[in-house]
Amino acid sequence: MTDTTAPTTAPAATAGSLEDRVRALSDTKRLALRRLIADRDAEARLLALDGSALKLLRGGPGPNLFVFPATEGSVGYMTGYLPHIPDDWSVYGCQTPGLEGEREPYTTVEDIAAHNVRQIRRVQPHGPYYLAGNCMGGLPAFETARQLHLEGAGIGLVLHLMPTFRRQWNDLPALDSLDTRALIDYGFIIERLVGEPVRLPLDEIAGLPEAERTDRVVDFLARHPSLKGVDTAVVRHRIGVYRANLGAMFAYRPGGGFDGGLTVVAVGQDEQDEGVVDPDSPYASAINAMAEDRVRVLRVDADASALFDCAEPHITRVGKVLRTVLTEAGADRTSRAGTGAGTPAGAEA
């Protein structure tokens, strides 16, 4: 496994109350917070394939890049990636099936991947396929590559944009308490965006009957200064999707690798002792399934929250590495045939 670092310097957080910090948030960060909890259709610019959870973020004459989202399931924030993706690439967001209430969410990475294999084949019948995932999305991207490989398809790229937040993974609740873990994760992301600890009523929630825990989580989130006025029914649904994806992530044990390589862009701040892939992280299961010489790790010294809010200057630091990886993959494509790339017939605004 190769490890390369892209050096940068990240700014320190400033002081202030939680309310002050929320008021000072940029529109980008404020939207990221609301999208994390409730806004299913925050990006009116998205194009949808009829009957599919795929979202066309940008069309182009070059290769197709299929990008899987983090645990919360939405893909609107990925428009912030587009300036850092070569202009001729088409970019599709593989939104979590069930996010918009069209079906129950899947509960295994294998089922999420199988659903997307069918949808991706509608867009691009033949390989090579270029797949990426942010955070938890790296796992269904990897599993999709495995399933496509088993069907005989060529894989051009599997890329995992991995936030390397410093967390004690073994001490966090997992499959035995997904509601509590969902709240911890939501609170953690809010902390990273706002820059100040969020006081979570974990002891109170743990003492409630299981049927009442989600209501308490919804009440807590709806009272947060950045989320006033959100639709609590939508929040409740989003927690259910988040919980399903969490369970899928924790349970995932890849049945092997595929004939190709895995590139990991590990994003974290050196001053926070981040940027190193933690083997105890549930994100690492795909890495562990691959031979060491088939895994390339590219480290980026930047705030990993930029993978969600696309805030500057951090997203540009990530974007430089992203563009390099995709440019390399595109160069390899010139020796391949049968990409089937381009905007499909039947895409609708």
Quick take:
The chain has 349 residues and is an alpha/beta fold.
Characterization of the model:
The chain is α/β, with parallel strands linked by helices and 349 residues long. The chain is built from 11 helices and 10 strands. The chain has helices at 18-24, 27-37, 109-123, 138-150, 178-194, 202-206, 210-222, 232-251, 285-288, 306-309, 314-333; strands at 2-6, 47-49, 54-58, 64-68, 90-94, 129-134, 155-163, 262-268, 295-301, 347-348. The termini are far apart.
Alpha plus pi helix count: 11
Instruction: Give me the side-by-side strand order of the main sheet.
Output: 1-9-8-7-6-4-5-3-2-10
Structural class: alpha/beta
H/E order of the elements?
Answer: EHHEEEEHEHEHHHHEHEHHE
**Main β-sheet: number of strands, strand sense, barrel status?**
10 strands, mixed
Radius of gyration: 19 Å
Helical fraction = 25-40%
Number of strands: 10
Multimerization state: single chain
Give the terminus-to-terminus CA distance.
42 Å
- The percentage of residues in β strands lies in 15-25%
Mean pLDDT: 78
3D shape: globular
Q: Which residues form runs of ≥5 with pLDDT under 50?
A: 7-18, 21-26, 41-46, 337-349
